[in-house]
Amino acid sequence: MPKQTFFKIPEDKRERLLREAAGLFAERGYNQTDMAQLARRAGIAKGSIYNYFESKEDLYLYVCRDGMQRSREAIYGRMDPEWDVYRQIEHIFKEGARFVQSHPEYLILYANISSAGMSRFSELMSLEVEKYTADYLKRLIRRDMQRGLVRDDVDVHFAAFMVNSLYIIFMASLVSSHFKIRLREYLEIEGDFTDATLAPLIQGITDTINNLLKPA
Amino acid sequence: MPKQTFFKIPEDKRERLLREAAGLFAERGYNQTDMAQLARRAGIAKGSIYNYFESKEDLYLYVCRDGMQRSREAIYGRMDPEWDVYRQIEHIFKEGARFVQSHPEYLILYANISSAGMSRFSELMSLEVEKYTADYLKRLIRRDMQRGLVRDDVDVHFAAFMVNSLYIIFMASLVSSHFKIRLREYLEIEGDFTDATLAPLIQGITDTINNLLKPA
DNA sequence: GGCGGTTGACTGACCGGACAGTCACCGTTA
DNA sequence: TAACGGTGACTGTCCGGTCAGTCAACCGCC
Q1: Stated pTM of the model
Q2: To which CATH superfamily is domain B1-54 assigned?
């Protein structure tokens, strides 16, 4: 957690530091991020960062949690909880794609907690990151099973796992340099992804999910 | 590529260095791996490593490529190319799970080329790593489509992408600390994974794939 | 088979750069 | 003038890569 000072400084300074930190941590990873460079980019002195946070690790954890919060708001914020599971999943994929294209840094931060040398962080954050989505999906599938919209022989845990797995791969494919290359190789796409290439991909994935869940 | 010297030293010394390097790079990541510590673990002097390889980066790339090679041999080696796509996919998942449990380091190396600060490496290796599997799966699906074993309205590229995506998530779930925690949370498993928890998961995933491909 | 010479793998102390975190001082405001 | 946020030069540590020197093995010659 930040020190109190961090919440007493002007909001734009706070935002700028968080923005630059998210960008740098995402671009270079935790260990390769240089606090002096971060200070320079954020337009403050290195010492100031240590007035706001106990340590680099402290800052990193806060930036990650803050990023998860922002992602969640962007993706779940405009969703009507009364929509059926199929419409909600479609919404999540579409809003996710939109959000990740304007703010790839947060998804990269997420992806990095699973990389080598980060197990210290993953022990702190993985559960807290995954629990929200896992619970949400399971509740949603269960609710629509009761409404007769989902086959009643579906294993709720497994189904939620599959939905989220496909979501993770999809999002990573838009953002990580490795997964972008991989997606291009599989779909034999030249150049950047456009709505014209992404729409059928989302369609294919959501169709697969529908197939898994929909009554015969 | 290694220098010639590397191929002139006794095989067990060579193997030991590669083994320890794969282990350390996987455990701590590229940047956090200390060449002095690696030398100590491999039972040689730091200078010797630089008699075998130009640089840390050179060693890393060789260890990764070597690991991919070994993984491929373990997983594709005992497979009969005449088996139908469903049997081959099941074999890949089962052998993959077996291999990754005895040699998690190679899959971790694979997973790490997609992490932050590794884009330099992913540009070098991603294509070469993914191309093999992508081509293999596409060829297999196409062949069995001609044999009438796969629905003829399936998009081969998309189908291969889905199969490999589920495979990646599955393998990562057995190996990365983050994905292990995530799998436990979704499936509500306590403690370690056993065959009893893994078998139904493989079953669920291959069923989903079969559903995607099999004629009505 | 003994001897001098040559080769090349092996070694680890050392160097230089990078970088997290500190601290003594500064400027502003109440 | 006290309190507090801001600052950047400084420090200690870490680590990739180097290199001058060692030594065992091998070779050709007597």
Answers
A1: 0.95
A2: Homeodomain-like (1.10.10.60)
